[in-house]
Amino acid sequence: MVSQITRGIKISVITSFEGTYFKNYKIHFAFSYEITIENHSKDSVQLNSRHWEIFDSLNDIEVVDGEGVIGKKPVLKPGESHTYSSGCLLSSPHGAMRGFFNMINFTTTKNFRVIVPTFRLSAPYALN
Question: Residue ranges of the ApaG domain (predicted)?
Fold first, then answer.
């Protein structure tokens, strides 16, 4: 697990290798990740959007931007948390992801970024 705190918002990530499959005569490596967002600040906040950089050891970096996370824009009061699961496909057994969440602080009405630390995506059988 990797974790990081930005402005009182703690992000923790757990990853898992889900297996391989063939599509269009090419092998794909499936990974899942579970992200927990914890509000350790004194203010209520809302996650509005996300930005991902997906690194694949055999491809260029893929950038993904979007609204919310898995169709939700969670509001977190002080002491609350939100956990969700998602996944990605790589063309190699090794890669990584990093990014940030754009959030709003309801007390100050200011937008801010919460860093998602870099997390590795590795098939266990491919490691030495």
Answer: 3-128
Residue range 93-106: mean pLDDT, rounded? 97
Quote the tokens at residue 11.
Answer: 């992000």
pLDDT in tens, 49-91: 999 999 999 888 999 999 999 999 999 999 999 999 999 999 9
Q: Which domain holds residue 75?
A: 2-126
Cβ proximity of 125 and 111 under 8 Å: no
How many domains, in total, are found in the chain? 1
pLDDT of residue 110: 98
Alpha-carbon span 59 to 19, nearest angstrom: 19
Q: Would you put residue 79 in left (φ > 0), alpha (ψ -120 to 50) or beta? A: left
CATH number at residue 10: 2.60.40.1470
Of the candidates 37, 30, 5, the residue with the CA atom closest to the CA atom of residue 15: 30
